Design the sequence.
């Protein structure tokens, strides 16, 4: 079987560097190039000390797409940048596997329409950790019986977007099963703005940002005399890589847009 040629955008970042290690250790993957703001014309191993990959570094998205003859574009950058990259990759017929979070629903709709129009695969997943996907699924199941829910997501303090893509995705899944209601005391008043968190369909999402954390979430379901807590912790970014690997392999055979790892796991 020929190798899957992969581009990584954000290759020197926390997630991107982990993705570089993944691509290097998988025999059926080949790092065709990286998109990075540093080191135009150099090789990755000349600008990064965590890898000996001699992949070409590009600073221009279109040049990267034209020259690297890639099959898949992995993106771990920033919301507005990742959106532009994903759109460009689709236009060039390169399949995106996107972990960058914070896209708006309008951007997701647009990317879905473009992937469908081009008839090529595109996977966008706010969380590539299989345990996190199960946490979301179990939360969706529980919501049928427990309509009173609060989501607490906890991340490192370098994270830009809030609430996390995972918490929004969890809320969306919960909303498919939960009897819609506005939670809490109807007369409640915030004496400090934001105390009750963000409102999603009447349930609340709270974002914690602290150094030392990676990515964690707990979903609290309250019922008469009981509390159900469903929690997932990523202690290391390697926890996301099995999902990235499955996505790179799966996207090669897809002809549509998929949002969420749960939709490709069998
Ligand atoms: P990070 O360490 O800050 O890395 C971001 C990378 O993007 C850096 O290499 C940065 O390069 C690059 N970048 C920023 N702006 C750019 C631009 N205009 N053009 C090209 N490259 C640019 O962030 P991270 O912790 O790896 O997170 C990256 C994304 O992944 C975030 O959206 C985060 O929420 C998401 N994430 C997803 C998952 C998942 O499972 N789906 C898990 C964890 C995190 P510079 O150094 O030059 O700025």
Sequence:
């Amino acid at each position: 079987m020929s190798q899957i040629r992969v581009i990584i955008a954000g290759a020197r970042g926390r997630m991107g560097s982990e993705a570089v290690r993944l691509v290097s250790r998988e025999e059926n993957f080949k790092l065709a190039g990286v998109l990075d703001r540093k080191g135009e014309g150099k090789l990755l191993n000349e600008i990064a000390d965590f890898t000996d990959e001699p992949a070409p570094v590009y600073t221009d998205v279109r040049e990267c797409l034209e020259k690297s003859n890639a099959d898949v574009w992995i993106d771990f950058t920033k919301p507005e940048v990742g959106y532009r990259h994903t759109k460009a990759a689709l236009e060039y017929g390169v399949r995106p596997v996107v972990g960058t979070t914070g896209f708006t629903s309008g951007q997701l709709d647009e990317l879905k329409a473009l992937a469908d129009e081009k008839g090529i695969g595109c996977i966008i997943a706010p969380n590539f950790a299989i345990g996190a996907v199960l946490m979301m699924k179990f939360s969706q199941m529980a919501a049928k019986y427990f309509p009173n829910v609060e989501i607490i997501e906890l991340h490192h303090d370098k994270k830009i977007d809030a609430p996390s893509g995972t918490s929004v995705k969890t809320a969306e899944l919960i909303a498919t099963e939960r009897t819609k209601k506005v939670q809490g005391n109807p007369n409640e008043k915030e004496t400090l703005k934001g105390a009750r968190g963000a409102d999603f369909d009447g349930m609340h999402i709270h974002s914690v940002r602290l150094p030392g954390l990676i990515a964690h979430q707990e979903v609290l379901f309250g019922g008469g005399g009981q509390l159900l807590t469903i929690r997932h912790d990523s202690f290391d970014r390697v926890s996301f890589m099995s999902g990235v690997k499955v996505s790179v392999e799966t996207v090669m055979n897809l002809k549509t847009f998929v949002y969420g790892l749960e939709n490709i796991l069998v």
Summary: Helices lie at 14-25, 44-47, 61-67, 79-91, 105-118, 130-143, 165-177, 241-251. Residues 37 and 181 are 46 Å apart (CA to CA).
